Amino acid sequence: MSASGGTKAIVAALGANLAIAAAKFVAFAFSGSSSMLAEGVHSLADSGNQGLLLLGGKKAKREATPEHPFGYGRERYIYGFLVSIVLFTIGGVFALYEGYEKIKHPHEVEHWYWPVGVLVFAIIAEGFSFRTAINESNEIRGKLSWPQFVRRAKAPELPVVLLEDFGALVGLVLALGGVGIALLTGDGVWDGIGTLCIGVLLVLIALVLAAETKSLLLGEAADVTEVAKIREAVVDGETVTGVIHMRTLHLGPEELLVAAKIAVQHDDTAAEVARAIDAAEARIREAVPIARVIYLEPDILRTSPTS
């Protein structure tokens, strides 16, 4: 599965969220709707998140240094984790607080056409952003279901944008429902309930993102299909007769470290083994192009190969 960063989806989400945030704050100023305020802060937080993802992608492209010999590919994971923190604190916790305050001290929604009009506009804009993220994700997710794609993707950007946009659309529906019921009943408590639901939704999404990016930060192995390709590419059936054991580790979404102990014939010369290792490395890079760092250690096979 490709580790594409989904830059198009990020830029589309950033543009949509900036426009939506401005519209929501204007609607809040005219209507006093807490749902509008919470949604405005949510969109502003999302805009900052997209900025963080773009910054992480740029920093990850830096060349390796003696201090960081494997490069900076994991910068993208770090910024993805920061996004989950921002979404949790600025988006989710603020919405929970604002919803609680509105339930305790409700007031009637004024100038109803502002929040309703802005919410309809926001749903259209977020729908465009969500569609862009879906189209980019479909190019690389293959036959995986959406939950599987979010869990297995090695590039954090597309899962982050997908979950953010999904949460934004559901949040907009909740905000529209809260404002609508508040207008129909004349009871501003419903606006607060809608805001509270938005906060719960954002906190849940933030926790999912935090768990997934934490796993990437700790270091994940290659996908099972890639591992199988690497094992098949190593063995040539002549000098290299098997894989004794192998470990893989993502140094970044598009950088894979491969370390393996390979079985060679006991009577092979050092020159033959060296040529076989060079050929095996070439086959691995051809089979799995993201395998950038490869260490192969020859040994005499005394027991059956293991993983």
Write the layout of secondary structure elements.
Blueprint: H1 7-31, H2 34-59, H3 75-104, H4 113-141, H5 146-152, H6 157-185, H7 189-218, H8 224-234, E1 240-252, E2 255-264, H9 270-287, E3 291-300
Parallel strand pairs: 2-3
Antiparallel strand pairs: 1-2
Helix pairs in contact: 1-2, 1-4, 1-6, 2-3, 2-6, 2-7, 3-7, 4-6, 6-7, 8-9
Tell me the total number of β-strands. 3
Helix content: 55-70%
Strands side by side in the biggest sheet = 1-2-3
Strand % is 5-15%
Largest beta-sheet characterization: 3 strands, mixed
Mean pLDDT, as a whole number?
85
Which value, in Å, is the CA radius of gyration? 25 Å
Distance between the termini: 22 Å
- Poorly predicted ranges (pLDDT <50, ≥5 residues)? none
Question: Could you characterize what this model shows?
Answer:
The chain has 307 residues and is mostly helical. The mean pLDDT is 85. The chain has helices at residues 7-31, 34-59, 75-104, 113-141, 146-152, 157-185, 189-218, 224-234, 270-287, and strands at residues 240-252, 255-264, 291-300. It has a three-stranded mixed β-sheet with strand order 1-2-3. It starts with 6 loop residues before the first helix and ends in a 7-residue tail after the last strand. The protein has nine helices and three strands, in the order ααααααααββαβ.
